[in-house]
Amino acid sequence: MELRAEDVFRPGAFPEYTYISRKSKTSDLSYEFRLKQAIRVSGFLTSLVGPSKMGKTILCEKVIGFEKIVEISGADFNDDTDFWKLVAAKAGLSYEGQFFSERKNEDTKDTKKETFSLTKDKIIEYYKKENLVLVIDDFHYAPVKKRLQIAQQLKDAIRRGFKAIVVSLPHRADEAIRQNADLSGRLSLINMEVWEVQDLKEIAKVGFAILNIKIEDSIAEKIAVESLSSPQLMQYICLNICTILEISDDTSLEVKEEILEKAYRYTTANFEYGDVITLIQRGPSTRGKRRNHFLTKKGESCDIYELIVKSIAENPPIMKLKFEDVKERIYHLLKEDCKGPTPQTIKSSLSKLQELLNGREDIFRVLDWKEGTLYILDPLFLFYLRWGGNRNGE
Ligand SMILES: Nc1ncnc2c1ncn2[C@@H]1O[C@H](COP(=O)(O)OP(=O)(O)O)[C@@H](O)[C@H]1O
Ligand SMILES: [Mg+2]
Question: Which InterPro entries match (predicted)?
Fold first, then answer.
């Protein structure tokens, strides 16, 4: 059977054909190996932490397999959720109910109706017997109060050989697990790092080879750089390249440089950061006072916040900019004879931006300015900034 592009490149699901195994920098072992080892050790709870969309869920699915994985999301919990009831239900067990038991003896065969309510012990036994592994994914979505209760239940269960992995974002939500004194000494910790260009490139090379589409190494590298450490973005862009090739008259079956930009622009259609960018460009309220404006090489008149946005979007795409880089990029944008904002102004504007974004919904948490470095937290945001419709007022 011939494979279609959407079977090969899968930005939203398990990438059966383009799954890439990576090594973790700290140990030189593959993530698959480390997770497999962690699950194998009885009596330990595995905590898998990493930034959004780096492949945490996919890794669990790969290592455990769809037959044996039981996935629960932190979002499945509210304050009143009965942990064991949910754990039973997700494994296909009914928690309460009735069953018919047959008691056979030599001459009679009677059927008896019994009511049961599964106990925690029975559920743990069932998981062990079937070799099931519970994955509590996106643990940060569980209500804060609930997280500690879940940790408590897990602590007791893992001691009896129950296998579980808790997956969460760094810093915010993992305290209930990683900083829980009761669990210390009983945790296997796996930190997932962001993707390197080398590994991202493989997604394109493997996928296009399967589809019999040629791609030069240098082109695969360009797409990988643009994907900003996100395998999901890489999958998205490659899929869109296929779509563009399909609808074009070009029958050469090769990914040429000319179509990359179009593919990037197509890809941004799936993201919605327009409001975030508008907010950053406007900056904090000036209470009617007009900000200083600066003239750019392109002839635009921009205030400091517009300049910051433009500087972030510049080439090459980088997720971590030192203050010097931001400053250089801003000065480089300006017309030669235009006196730019002072370093002090740039710094204080960055601090104000940080304040403006803090405390808003998750989608607005795209930047972090600390200790003289500007971190772009969300790769999709930076990608949108570079290629989205908002750019250059298009
Ligand atoms: N090992 C991998 N190889 C290739 N693509 C991957 C890999 N891991 C993740 N991806 C891509 O990234 C997407 C997001 O991965 P996911 O596991 O959902 O991230 P997370 O759980 O960390 O938010 C996947 O749908 C897939 O397209
Ligand atoms: Mg996930």
Answer: P-loop_NTPase
Q: Is the dihedral of CA 168, 171, 173, 178 positive or negative?
A: positive
CA 75 / ligand 1 centre spacing (Å): 19
Choose the CATH number for 31-101+111-191 among 3.40.50.2300, 3.40.50.300, 3.40.190.10, 3.50.30.20: 3.40.50.300
Per-residue model confidence as pLDDT tens digits over 251-304: 889 999 999 999 999 999 989 999 999 999 999 988 888 899 999 999 999 999
| Ligand 1 pocket: which of 135, 190, 205, 232 to mutate (most atoms within 8 A of CB) | 232
Closest atom, ligand 1, to C-alpha of 22: 1
Residue 103 has pLDDT above 60, yes or no: no
